[in-house]
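Continuing from the previous page of notes. For each protein in this section, the sequence appears first, followed by its structure tokens. Read the first protein now.
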Amino acid sequence: MRPSDQAPRHCLVTGASSGIGRAVAERLVADGWDVTVLVRREEAPVGTRVVVGDAASAADLQRSIEFAAGEGGLLHGLVCAAGVPPSGPWDDADHWTDVLRVDLTAAYDAARLAWPALVSAAGSVVFVGSIVGTAEGSGRSPAYAAAKAGLEGLARSLAVIGGPDDVRVNVVAPGAIDTPFDTLAFPADARPDVPLGRMGTAGEVASIVALLLSPASSYVTGATWRVDGGRTALSTTAAAIKARG
């Protein structure tokens, strides 16, 4: 049974101490959600309920899911924003293991452990992916590209699994976003590789996440929404010409 639209909406956001995850938590609080965040340190937006732990720990995920869902066992939203940034060298096996564990396996574990609460609430899941891996390769971090590409396959599969229970699963795939996570290749307000000419903001990504969690996207599942200012629509030749001025 679909829960009443008047009931409190409970959401868990991982990786909410900074960047996109923090912006998502702030947006959901502003929209009236009851937001629980799983963070490694006690730095979280005002109005959220904080669980300190590791998003790649199944035990910490289980603890935060139970806290977010409360006595009713209802989780209306799950946003997996925790991640390890791309770095090198590309052939570092330990880096590969760590990135896949945090950027991909942790999202799978979060969805798996939250599934009963999501089914009970006919909830929605959003994974924070990237245009890296699905539209672009990475010479610096194949691990990051593989993990982010994997999130899209995971989301499509969970969308099929969740369909009969009205559980929706989608991916938001940011491009160049002005956060500490993103290394600046050009000035934030002068990006020749982006048709809109600038980097995006974490708040702009959060607005799409909020949409994908809301009833306004009730017929959207298994989809990837790119938030990249048109970067993946721009040919490499056109980008090179723009960069030369």
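Done with the first. The second protein uses the same format. Note its length before scrolling.
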Amino acid sequence: MTHANASLTPTGRKRLAEAIVRHGWTPRRAAERFQVAPGTARKWAARYRAGLPMTDISSRPHSSPGRTPTRLERRIIGLRVTRRWGPHRIGYHLGVPRSTVGRVLARYRMPRLADTDQATGLPVRKSKPVRYEHAAPGDLIHMDVKKLGRIPDGGGHRALGRRAGRRNSGTRGRGYTFVHHALDDHSRLAYSEIHDDERKETVVEFWRRAVAFFAEAGIEIKAVLTDNGSGYRSKLFAAELAAGANRGATPIKHRRTRPYRPQTNGKVERFNRTLAREWAYAQTYRSDAARAATYPDWLHTYNHHRPHTGIDGLTPAQRVQNLTRNYT
């Protein structure tokens, strides 16, 4: 493209070339007349003799054999639109470098996930969040419960539509299942179980198994962060924390989030979003038991194989050196 300070416009280039080709001027004389370099004068004269236009020609190559195939580009864009995955997740799923996915998304002008509305997928303007992270595994464990609607036998409205789904569910629905989480702040390593309730007894029994899981990975828990649910505020849970991770060791500090501020427990809330998008609603299940049966495999993939952008593309297992089957 001709820039604002160019010595020659396409018309001026033609006059320069005609002076050399048709009127017999030397390239040096024409260059002095039109105030350009002799090499420039010879270039436009040669192009005029060849019958080429006097406009700028794109420097883009005629073919790009190394460019990402169109079919792969469509798969990348499809995953971004339907699954709302980031470059790391898409790259891992398709087996292509994250940089390749990033270039494809930029080529198609796809907005960053952080700049889109979660409900509609439309671009929005958001301030950049301040990210924090504790220095070592066990410094803080995030704990929460994700409530999911039960899937009736035969499938719900996602599989059969609203009318048929209601018939399977009954007039009062099927109730909920409760997915309990314990997530390490530093490594994002997660321990999780599916239960029928969130009572204090269930919370305490889950916590004991979570402590054992982290202990097996060589993680000593120093503090836990929860919301203000009744199970977490119970005396039974407080007594369990007071006993320490090894029952008789240093008490575990209990921190609570501010009311109506789920951002305080942001890492486990982000885990809930990932869980919902990549497992709970990622495919159509025909029963609640069918969905629950796939959860252990998904959780293993999350801990051992799924790259996490919040920890520089590593997996949670890669940040915990003593984790069993770290490289499986």
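What the second structure shows: The beta strands are 141-149, 176-184, 190-195, 223-226, 253-256. The mean pLDDT is 83. We return to this in next week's lecture.
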